[in-house]
Design goal:
6 strands, 188 residues, Rossmann fold, 7 helices, single chain
């Protein structure tokens, strides 16, 4: 899948979403040099947004411009390939109310490293299907990424757990739960 996207065959961290300030993608770029202390990896950013020029400059400033790939907008039919090309999904944003991209990543069987904020802890169970880090903790983010990228068995175990998490968010199960809530309210 990496070849299909024009990516080198390196351990890959992916982010899918808008490249805007609330996504805090600077943290991912700042974490990459710390990951490189242990292994050669790349960061793939899929999406468009106002922060792309600043993110490109930051990648050059911290010495990882050759390891940060900006793929731009991806149509829905290309997203499964993007997730399959990744080893880990990372999301440092603190404004995620639902995070469809994270749900897509767990449904694709990826372990996730996410900010411990808003909706993300509902999709990421530490040590089960990924890791949470304190927003702004670049060292903690880098440590979690390094741990996952360094262990295929850990990624496999957490990826399988991610599929289980995704199943709990199936749209039919969600609708049934809403119906249960509304029925309970009507009975009162």
């Amino acid at each position: 899948m990496r070849k299909e996207l024009g990516l080198p065959d390196l351990p890959t961290v992916a982010f899918v979403g808008r490249l805007d300030a609330e996504k805090r993608l600077e943290e991912l770029i700042r974490a990459l040099p710390r990951v490189h202390e242990t292994l050669d990896a790349q960061l793939v950013l899929v999406g468009t947004g106002t922060r792309r020029p600043a993110l490109e400059r930051l990648a050059a400033e911290v010495g990882v411009a050759d390891r940060v790939r900006f793929l731009g907008f991806a149509p829905d039919e290309q997203l499964p390939i993007t997730y399959q090309a990744a080893d880990v999904f990372a999301i440092p944003g603190v404004a995620e109310l639902q995070s469809i991209a994270t749900l897509e990543a767990v449904a694709s069987g990826l372990p996730v490293v996410a900010a411990d904020a808003v909706a993300l802890p509902h999709l990421v169970s530490p040590e089960r299907n990924g890791f949470l880090f304190r927003p702004g903790d670049v060292a903690g983010l880098a440590a979690a990424l390094t741990r996952l990228l360094s262990s295929a068995s850990l990624r496999d175990r957490m990826g399988a757990a991610s599929r289980t998490v995704a199943a709990a968010h199936d749209h039919e199960a969600t609708l049934a739960r809403f119906e249960e809530i509304y029925t309970g309210l009507l009975r009162r």
